[in-house]
Design a protein that fits this description.
Helices cover 5% and strands 53% of the residues. It has 151 residues and is mostly beta strands. The protein starts with a strand and ends in a 6-residue tail after the last strand.
């Protein structure tokens, strides 16, 4: 890859990024993402304006999936009356791999990415019209991509 950054996850706009692939390689959880925004303050962005990248490789090093939660939701009728309510559901650890693979369909997208201490928190809008929160512990992040694209 032509461009490379370390621990600059916050210099990218991951909301609306589409997930093309997720895989675990040598202790690194790798996300291949399309439609990632590169912020003007990114060390590799010489244009000093918001740019975009496809096929960006986001790696969380020494990664371990801590939790995976399917977010609850509410169903209302046309009059705004609450009809049903579904609570958050903790996904069992044995189902993590299958669910992560299902996100890598090119249609699921990242709604947000946050970090608290050593945990990366991904909110993912899955193509199944469900929302999930993925908690990944890791020691650092790296980002690699080949080219900048105009918005």
């Amino acid at each position: 890859m032509k461009y490379y950054t370390t621990n600059e996850w916050n210099q990218f706009g991951f909301s609306e990024a589409y997930i093309a692939e997720i895989q675990k390689v040598n202790g690194c959880l790798q996300f291949t993402l399309d439609n990632v925004m590169i912020e003007p303050d990114n060390t590799q962005n010489r244009d000093i304006r918001r740019m975009r990248a496809n096929e960006l490789l986001l790696c969380i090093h020494n990664a371990s999936v801590e939790r995976l939660v399917e977010e609850g939701y509410r169903v209302y009728n046309a009059d705004g009356k609450l009809m049903q309510q579904y609570d958050d559901t903790e996904i069992p650890q044995e189902n993590y791999n299958d669910l992560l693979k299902s996100f890598a369909d090119g249609e699921s997208r990242i709604y947000s990415l946050e970090k608290t201490e050593d945990t990366y928190i991904f909110t993912i809008d899955a193509s199944s019209d469900r929302t999930y929160v993925l908690y990944v512990a890791g020691t650092k992040d790296t980002e690699e991509w080949n080219r900048f694209l105009n918005l």
